[in-house]
């Protein structure tokens, strides 16, 4: 009993020292036998720990347990890190125990050298402060195993939060530096456009136009995740190609479908009303067969028809106003979906989705075949790919042969469609402008319609263009026959 009182009085001194220590965030609870403390670096880098005093404390070792589950259990401390922190914090306590054999006198100041509580908390705090990967520990491990599954390499520094990834899909390479922000998955930066991960391309042998397309989408993906979008939606929204009309977001509320159904119903009602109105007009205006000046129907019948017509017209105006209001709301809803507008939202971790996207964009792109001709989309030599995108010098006169060669080169350029499949420009041109005018995608996507902003979404326009081209050709053929 005496030892418990001694222990509790010493523990009380330690708790006071802990409360006074400005760098430790908060002593949340304390009893004779334990202290619960919250150690804080930023919103997503924090630890909750239970420190339990053994009966013979401070002669025995303090028991440190990490309990933090994080926000909504999503960004808690993963098991691997929890164990590491517990073992190392208890190591710090052991050092105090081994080094501080001499008695701590009542007037002695408590420090991490003579107090196990302070030693454990100082260790945890300095770990939190110096390790940028605390809030993406598990994600980083998954990322590393994803990256190293192929020939790719990854290097990281926990003190600076820098991750160097090198994606190799020979002969193509893409190296980038990903800097994890202090506030990841959010950001503590006070900039115009702060991001939880900064992406900087270090080197690549992709042409500038392709490299920027990939990198910009990765940056956009990070931004959307930070806004609270789930990675599937974030990826869809980061697509530089605008979604085709009627496209439904893969998750979340299916607003466009609801609007479409309503609109169709309205259109059907419109037709019914028009038919009804036409019949009423007929009643009012019909003339007798043998006398075109005399009305067919009685005055009363015509009057009733006119009254009914008026009523219907009024109703129509009201309904049109309502529909207009609804449609403008629909437009707002659509704009919100397209711009990723969000009322509020917790940031979603973006490291793994971003690296996953980069691997998909680089490795799968390199290995991919064109869905139309089934040949490799990329040339075997990166220099040949660069040449496809080279601009011809301004003012240079080209011979007919050079022009033809250039046209052929342009046809071989890789072009990405909305579904993320890559085509040869010439193959896509043929697929979109000739019957059956861009059917479903035969690439690695789930087979949605082929959509690219260079071609109209409306198949009828493509069809009309093709028809008039054919007509022109026929006319030319006919003209040739007369010559
Ligand atoms: Zn092709
Ligand atoms: Zn596709």
Task: Name the features.
4 domains; RWD domain-containing protein; alpha+beta; single chain; 13 helices; Ubiquitin Conjugating Enzyme; 483 residues; binds zinc ion
Please describe the topology of this protein:
Layout: H1 2-20, E1 26-30, E2 34-42, E3 45-52, E4 63-66, H2 79-99, H3 116-130, H4 137-147, E5 153-157, E6 162-169, E7 172-180, E8 197-204, H5 208-226, H6 231-237, H7 255-285, H8 299-339, H9 351-367, H10 382-389, H11 400-412, E9 414-416, E10 422-424, H12 425-433, H13 459-482
Organism: Triparma laevis f. longispina
Protein name: RWD domain-containing protein
Region (Disordered): 284-305
Can you walk me through this structure?
- This is RWD domain-containing protein.
- It comes from Triparma laevis f. longispina.
- This protein is an alpha+beta fold.
- The protein has 4 domains: 129 residues, Roll (Ubiquitin Conjugating Enzyme), CATH 3.10.110; 95 residues, no CATH class; 85 residues; 106 residues, no CATH class.
- A hairpin with a 3-residue loop joins β1 and β2.
- The protein contains 13 helices and 10 strands.
- The longest helix has 41 residues.
- A 4-stranded antiparallel beta sheet has the order 1-2-3-4.
- It starts with a helix and ends with a helix.
- Helix content is 49%, strand content 13%.
- The protein binds zinc ion (2 copies).
């Amino acid at each position: 009993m005496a030892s418990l009182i001694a222990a509790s009085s010493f523990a009380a001194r330690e708790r006071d020292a802990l409360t006074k220590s400005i760098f430790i965030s908060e002593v949340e609870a304390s009893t004779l036998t334990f202290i619960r403390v919250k150690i804080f670096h930023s919103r997503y880098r924090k630890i909750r720990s239970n420190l339990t005093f053994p009966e013979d404390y401070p002669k025995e070792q303090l028991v440190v347990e990490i309990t933090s589950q994080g926000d909504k259990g999503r960004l808690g401390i993963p098991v691997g890190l929890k164990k590491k922190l517990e073992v190392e914090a208890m190591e710090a306590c052991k050092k105090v125990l081994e080094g501080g054999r001499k008695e701590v006198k009542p007037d002695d100041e408590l420090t991490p050298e003579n107090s196990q509580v302070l030693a454990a908390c100082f260790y945890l705090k300095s770990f939190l402060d110096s390790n940028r990967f605390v809030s993406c520990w598990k994600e980083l491990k998954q990322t590393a195993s994803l990256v190293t599954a192929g020939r790719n390499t990854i290097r990281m520094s926990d003190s600076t939060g820098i991750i160097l990834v090198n994606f190799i899909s020979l002969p193509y390479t893409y190296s980038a530096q990903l800097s994890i922000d202090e506030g990841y998955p959010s950001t503590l930066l006070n900039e115009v456009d702060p991001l939880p991960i900064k992406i900087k391309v270090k080197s690549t042998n992709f042409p500038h136009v392709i490299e920027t397309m990939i990198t910009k989408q990765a940056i956009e993906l990070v931004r959307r995740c930070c806004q609270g979008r789930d990675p599937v939606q974030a990826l869809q929204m980061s697509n530089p190609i605008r979604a085709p009309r009627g496209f439904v977001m893969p998750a979340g509320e299916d607003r466009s479908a609801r609007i479409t159904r309503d609109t169709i119903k309205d259109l059907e009602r419109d037709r019914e009303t028009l038919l009804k109105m036409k019949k009423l007009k007929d009643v009012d205006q019909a003339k007798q067969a043998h006398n075109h000046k005399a009305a067919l129907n009685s005055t009363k019948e015509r009057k009733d028809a006119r009254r009914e017509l008026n009523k219907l017209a009024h109703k129509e105006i009201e309904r049109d106003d309502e529909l207009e209001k609804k449609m403008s709301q629909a437009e707002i809803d659509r704009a919100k979906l397209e711009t990723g507008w969000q009322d509020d939202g917790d940031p979603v971790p973006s490291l793994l989705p971003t690296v996953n996207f980069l691997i998909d964009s680089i490795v799968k792109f390199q290995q991919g075949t064109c869905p139309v001709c089934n040949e490799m989309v990329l040339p075997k030599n990166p220099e040949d790919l660069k040449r496809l995108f080279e601009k011809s010098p301004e003012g240079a006169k080209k011979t007919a042969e050079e022009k033809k060669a250039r046209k052929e080169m342009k046809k071989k350029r890789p072009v990405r469609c909305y579904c993320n499949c890559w085509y040869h420009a010439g193959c896509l041109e043929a697929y979109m402008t000739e019957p059956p005018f861009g059917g479903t995608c035969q690439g690695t996507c789930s087979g949605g319609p082929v959509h690219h902003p260079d071609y109209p979404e409306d198949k009828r326009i493509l069809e009309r263009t093709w028809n008039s081209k054919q007509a022109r050709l026929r006319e030319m053929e006919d003209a040739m026959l007369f010559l």
